[in-house]
Amino acid sequence: MAKECDFAYGRRPICKPGTLLYSTKDLPARREPTLRLPRREKRSWPWSGNNFLQLINQKVVNIKALYAQTVSDQILEGQAACTNCVVGDGIYTSCVMVPGRNFCANCVHGRRTNKCSLGAQVQHSLPAPHATEPPIQAKADRTIEKIAKLIELERIEVEQMQELIVKKLELIQELEDSTQGSD
Questions:
Q1: CA–CA separation, 59 vs 72, rounded Å?
Q2: Is residue 3 part of a domain?
Q3: What is the pLDDT along the chain (183 residues), one digit of tens a residue?
Q4: CA Rg, the chain, in Å?
Q5: Which residues are paired to 54 by β-bridges?
Q6: Is the same domain home to 32 and 87?
Q7: How many separate domains does the chain show?
Q8: Is 108 within the bounds of a domain?
């Protein structure tokens, strides 16, 4: 159905060589995109078929994301998925690599392709021009990079928590000093 819909915003790009829609228009549909249940703070996502199609037809990037979700043969799971998909961002349940690109369909839909961690993974894991890196090693390197990013985020969170604890202790000391001074 996604590939048969005549989306107004997609008519020009689908006919223009070099665009994502043009490169995916002739690929066979491989899956039916599944929508993610909204998180509590994002309850405004449309869940009826008509509302979903209206959402898709609002922007060319939404159409691109729907096509990529439908035709891509690379579903990324677990540590291979982009960090946005891992934390539950994006309209689709699966992290699907856009054919011929370094980002996933969820990040295309949200216009976050520059923040999609798949692009960074691909850039950092590219082998030297004449070297051939085994695919297992490349995947291990990407996983190590993701772990390093998560460790760095945890380190920052720990530092922030430590600062909060110090501030709380200072306030408690200030409160104790003021109550002892009034005795």
A1: 20
A2: no
A3: 666 666 665 666 666 676 777 667 778 787 787 787 766 555 555 566 777 777 777 788 888 888 888 888 778 888 788 888 888 888 888 888 877 778 888 888 867 777 788 875 544 333 434 444 456 777 788 888 888 888 888 988 999 999 999 999 999 999 998 888 766
A4: 23
A5: none
A6: yes
A7: 2
A8: yes
